[in-house]
Amino acid sequence: MSISKIIGLQFRKPVGVLGKIIANLMVVGNHIFYKTMIDYLTIRSNDKILEIGYGPGIGVDMISKRFETCDIYGIDFSDLMYRRASKRNKQVIQNNRVHLLLGDFIDTEINMGLFDKIFCINVVYFWDDLHKPFSRVISLLRDDGIFCLYMEKNDDLNKVKLTKNDIFNKYSIEQISKALKAVGFKEVDFFFKKGYFIKAKK
Ligand SMILES: C[S@@+](CC[C@H](N)C(=O)[O-])C[C@H]1O[C@@H](n2cnc3c(N)ncnc32)[C@H](O)[C@@H]1O
Question: What is the number of domains present in the chain?
Answer without folding.
Answer: 1
